[in-house]
Structure formats: C-alpha cells, structure tokens
Design a protein that fits this description.
Layout (H helix, E strand, L loop, with lengths): L21 H26 L15 H7 L7 E3 L6 H5 L4 H8 L33 H15 L5 E6 L6 H12 L4 E7 L2 E2 L2 E2 H4 L16 E5 L3 H16 L5 E6 L17 H8 L3 H18 L1
Parallel strand pairs: 1-2, 2-3, 3-7, 6-7
Antiparallel strand pairs: 4-5
Helix pairs in contact: 1-2, 1-10, 2-8, 5-6
The chain binds thiamine diphosphate (TPP) and magnesium ion (MG).
Length: about 300
C-alpha cells in the first residue's frame, strides 16, 4: 500500500535564494549531471544483462553528495552503504573505474572483486561501499576515532539509509561517537523507504534526526533535494567537528526516482508522490540558478 503523508514533504530551505556564486553552481551541476548520466547508463546496461548482481541507483539523491563535497576537503573521508556509485564520482573518481567495477573487470576501482555495492578508493578517502545495512556506521565512527587519535582535523562523513537507523549498530556508534566527541557526521539519506517499507510503517519516530537527542548529539533535518541546504548543514557540522566539538546527525530528506534496486517495480508508492519529487529535481534547480545568474551577468 502506497502512503503519502505530509511528513514526506521536504522542508523549505531559506538558503535557496543564494549566497553561492555561479562557479559553485556549475560545479554542482556538472557533478550531479555526471552521476545521473552514469546511472542512467548503468540502468540500461543492467537491463541488457551486461551488468550482473545487485544495482542500486542514486538517481534523485545526487545533491546529498554534491552539496557535501563542496563543503569538505580532500583529506576528509566518506563511507556509505550499497547505493554507492555517486559518492566516488562526486569525489572525483573517473567514472570509467566505477563502470569497470560494475562489469566485474580487473580495471575496476575494487579490481572487479566488489561490484556495484563495494566501490572503494584509498586515494579519495572513500571507504566503501557496504552491503550490510548499518555495517558502515561503526566503521565510520572508527575512522573518525583514528583521526582524533592521530591529532589531525579531518572529518568523516558517514552516510546511511533511513532503514539503517533501526539497527543496533547505529545506536552503539552514536553513543560512543558522542561520548568521545569524534569528528564524524552521520548523514541519513531519508528517501522514505527501506526497500518497499515506508518509514512510518516501522516506527512512530519519523523525524529521524530526533534520534540523536537520546545521545545529546546536535542534529538537524535538511532539505536534501538541493545542494545549498546540504552544503550549509555539512559546513556547520564540519566546523564543529574540526573544533573538537564532536559529531552531528543530519537527516536529509530526499527521494529515489527508481526502485530500491533494478528488480523493484516500486508498486508501494504512488505516481503522484514520485512526480512531486521530480518537480524538485536538484539538477534542474541548479541549472535554473545558472541560467538566472547568466542573464543577470549579461545585463550588467
Ligand atoms: C543487516 C541487513 N539486513 C537486511 C538486508 C537486506 N536489505 C538490503 S537493503 C535494505 C533496505 C535498506 O533501506 P535504507 O536503509 O532505507 O536504504 P535505501 O535502500 O533506501 O538507500 C535491506 C533490508 C541487508 N542488506 N543487511
Ligand atoms: Mg531508504
């Protein structure tokens, strides 16, 4: 049964009338468009059975990576779950290494041994690519522990789906990270469904950022359908983490346009709900700002 509740509407962000320059929008646009085109191609190749195994697409969620990369530095690290093609591309990996990995080739970023769910790059400080729901959360906290132990000011961005917050590992990691003031930002990609199960079917707590209150951890709900609010929320969390003030939990409200994986027809949600989010498309909105800014420049 598809569910449409008011809680699904992404919060309006004041940041949309923007302090960011055209160059930043161009970077966001190029980065997100590359992710989108790559994944559209991956989807086609999967249907043609050139790519086998699992394949989870990030289409619709691109701003969560593009807006974070612009707010972090290359020595910061990223870790995520199995929906992991966009993260390395956003961090600057040549997409051919991601594609080769999807094909299971030795030239892939994990030497063809990982496939879709296990992208990795030591050079880019991208620590995967994890198939066990919630498995990356204590690992992300552990990377942050290493940074604190070594005494540098690097930060770890640890992404997870809304389904992962029901795992015990999430709570254990949040508790320790807060107690030890680790430089980690926990980012929930709240796309409202864990496979076909809606968030409000599994818990009364649907404002997922509030789960951090139990650990006295700073937290925010963020409009994840645009780069500006994502960048700004990450920037605030990064600043705190670099000062030694510890972790933050960010619940980013987002939407995946495709099914959970390639074999999911997504019958548990309505066409209207999907259209509502496609109207908020992060790539379209970045392009619109670029066009507006170009017109303003021409007039000057
Ligand atoms: C420990 C564990 N239990 C179950 C699964 C099967 N599984 C794979 S994805 C998934 C749903 C996760 O949803 P969510 O965290 O919301 O991420 P999304 O797919 O929406 O990005 C489940 C239950 C798994 N991979 N690991
Ligand atoms: Mg989800």
């Amino acid at each position: 049964m598809a569910k449409t509740t008011t809680s699904k509407v992404a919060p309006k962000s004041a940041a949309k009338t923007s302090k960011f320059d055209k160059k930043t929008y161009m970077k966001w646009y190029e980065s997100m468009l590359l992710m989108r085109k790559f994944e559209e191609k991956a989807g086609q190749l999967y249907i043609q059975q050139k790519i086998r195994g699992f394949c989870h697409l990030y289409i619709g969620q691109e701003a969560l990576v593009a807006g974070a990369v612009s707010a972090t530095k290359p020595t910061d690290s990223y870790i995520t779950a199995y929906r992991d093609h966009a993260h390395p591309i956003g961090l600057g990996m040549d997409p051919k290494y991601v594609m080769a990995e999807l094909y299971g080739k030795e030239t892939g970023c994990t030497k063809g041994k990982g496939g879709s769910m296990h992208m990795f790059s030591k050079e880019l400080n991208f620590f995967g690519g994890h198939g066990i729901v919630g498995g990356q959360i204590p690992l992300g906290a552990g990377i942050a522990f290493a940074y604190k132990y070594k005494g540098n000011d690097n930060v770890t961005l640890c992404y997870m789906g809304d389904g992962a917050v029901r795992q015990g590992a999430f709570h254990e990691a949040l508790n320790m990270a807060m107690n030890w003031k680790l430089p980690v930002i926990f980012i929930i990609e709240n796309n409202y469904y864990a496979m076909g199960t809606a968030v409000d079917r599994v818990s009364n707590v649907t404002d997922l950022h509030k789960m951090a209150d139990g650990y006295l951890m700073p937290n925010e709900q963020v409009d994840g359908m645009a780069c500006e609010p994502v960048h700004e929320a990450i920037e605030r969390a990064v600043t705190r983490a670099r000062k030694g003030e510890g972790p933050t939990l960010l619940e980013m409200r987002t939407y995946r346009y495709k099914g959970h994986s390639m074999s999911d027809p997504a019958k548990y949600r309505t066409k209207e709900e999907l259209e509502e989010y496609k109207n908020l498309d992060p790539i379209e909105s970045a392009l619109n700002v670029i066009k507006k800014k170009s017109t303003l420049l021409k007039r000057k």
